[in-house]
Design goal:
Order of helices and strands: HEEEEEEEHEEEHEHHEHEEEEEHEHEHEE
Strand content: 15-25%
Number of strands: 21
């Protein structure tokens, strides 16, 4: 441990070195020394090697842990408490229903420290039981998440491909989206143009471009107002703050991109975080249909999206992640891990990536094409769970050769027949009414805005100039481009209409 006088600057000299306790045989533990790669520091809070500029806790030598109750009880141990009670970290026994009720009841508060994982919350939603959850009665669940809706066979099931982008939409990346989703790129099975989903974050977004994406049949979903980089911020927001971030962003998008109420139904939390039960309570209260923030590790088969009416069918993935544990009537469009190996048969094992941006080993267009085909083949050759290809908005700005390869790949795959580039909402529509491949040509939910024609609603949007919000105080001015009338001030948290309340 460093001395108390150690400064952050001195600590950074050794910040790439870390130590782990590892099994040493029998009941012993050994201390193993590790070293982060070049340009990387060890983040003690996240417990991973991270780009050095993102690490600001080099002077911290241990991670604080909260007291925990003695729960769950290992199979080889007996509880010290009566039935239906749990022993607090401080020793007293309390009824299990007092745990994870947002009110500390244990003397040390440990009853509220096991509530971000359904495997530890004693009052978590039930696991899926197919004997109780009957398809014909309007209930669908899957014990391990791999079951095809409607119990169709893989050969009867369309291979849906979900291309998503998260972040601000601006004029520069709008031109990239035009290259990917060309008017001539159509799904062979129903002759509709390929579609994608855009999780729009508010700051710096051009809403006339969002309006044009929507006119062309793409789905507009919400990626928050602030898009903050602080992971703890997203993990610890209350339901009210989630409402301000996401329903507020929805109100901004509806008004300034001229999208009708009831059309924006999806959300994704920034920074690969999840807001736990607070986030999902907000979604129920404010009419969001689905979330797409939870990631799943690679398993025997890829996972299908699932509803949160039962316990999620995979472990809670992410350091200090705040996963939902209770019953919620919303969909989770789960993010499957992607295989980034050059050759899945012979390459050494590598951890996968959930966003394509995270696949740092892919540096050549040929590699990129092989990566796309490998993951498509895994989904198509097994249970045909939707293949998610999730990007941040700037991904292709610095990868022009990848963009050309991706555009060609989308056009090629769309022409093959069994493959459909669809939006998140279109995928949910199919899961709620599973339809065999042979009948998909006339599937009504996929025919809406099948092949849009015409011109943008406005070619010269209003460049609304405003004082920037406090989070962007280094900007001289902020511009909001919209075909609608300009707001009085830049819309922001707790002032989505831009009336100027945030300036008072």
């Amino acid at each position: 441990a460093p001395e108390a006088s150690t400064t952050e600057e001195k600590s950074r000299a050794a910040c790439g070195t870390y130590f782990r306790c590892v099994p040493g045989g029998g009941n012993r533990k050994l201390v193993s020394r590790g070293q982060c790669g070049f340009g990387m520091f060890f983040d003690i809070e996240l417990q991973i090697c991270e780009i050095r500029s993102k690490v600001a806790n080099c002077d911290q030598w241990q991670k604080k842990t909260s007291p925990k109750p003695k729960w769950p009880i290992p199979n080889d141990q007996i509880s010290n408490c009566p039935p239906n009670q749990i022993e607090c970290g401080s020793g007293e026994c309390l009824p299990s229903e007092l745990f994870c009720d947002d009110q500390p009841d244990c003397a040390d508060g440990s009853d509220e420290n096991i509530c971000n994982d359904p495997e530890t919350d004693p009052n978590a939603a039930d696991k899926c039981d197919p004997r109780q959850c009957i398809w014909e009665q309007g209930c669908f669940c899957s014990v391990d998440g791999t079951r095809i809706p409607g119990d169709l066979t893989p050969t009867q099931t369309p291979q849906m491909i979900l291309i998503t982008f998260s972040g601000a939409v601006n004029e520069e990346n709008f031109r990239i989206y035009e290259q990917i989703f060309q008017e001539t790129t159509k799904n062979k099975g129903n002759d509709c143009t390929a579609k994608g989903t855009f999780f729009v974050s508010h700051a710096f977004t051009n809403y006339s471009a969002v309006q044009e994406l929507h006119r062309r049949g793409h789905e507009i979903a919400i990626g928050s107002i602030t898009n903050r980089n602080d992971k703890n911020y997203w993990s610890n927001l209350t339901a009210e703050d989630y409402e301000a971030e996401f329903d507020g962003a929805r109100m901004i998008t509806e008004r300034f991109a001229n999208i009708s109420q009831g059309e924006i139904l999806g959300m994704r939390v920034p920074q690969a975080r999840v807001g736990g039960n607070e986030q999902f309570r907000m979604m129920i209260d404010w009419g969001f249909l689905y979330d797409s923030s939870l990631s799943a590790p690679t398993g025997r088969l890829p996972l299908w999206p699932y509803t949160m009416q039962h316990r999620m069918p995979h472990r809670c993935l992410g350091t200090d992640q705040n996963c939902p544990t209770r019953n919620f009537t919303v969909w989770e469009m789960v993010i499957n891990e992607l295989d980034r190996r050059d050759d899945p048969l012979f390459s050494e094992a590598l951890t996968g990536c959930h966003l394509v941006d995270q696949c740092a080993n892919i540096v050549e267009p040929k590699q990129f094409r092989n990566f796309l085909e490998t993951n498509l083949a895994r989904h198509y050759g097994t249970n045909r769970a939707p293949l998610g290809l999730h990007f941040t908005a700037p991904y292709f700005l610095t990868r022009k050769s990848f963009l050309r390869e991706f555009s060609r790949w989308v056009a090629d795959v769309a022409s093959r027949g069994d493959y459909y580039f669809v939006t998140m909402l279109q995928a949910i529509s199919w899961m709620e009414a599973p339809t065999e491949l042979a009948a998909l040509n006339n599937f009504p939910e996929w025919k809406n805005k099948c092949d849009p024609k015409g011109l943008p609603y406005c070619s010269l949007p209003n460049p609304c100039e405003n004082k920037p919000p406090p989070l962007h105080k280094n900007e001289d001015r902020m511009f909001l481009y919209t075909c609608a009338e300009c707001p009085n001030s830049y819309p922001w948290l707790y002032d989505p209409e831009g009336f100027g309340f945030a300036d008072l």
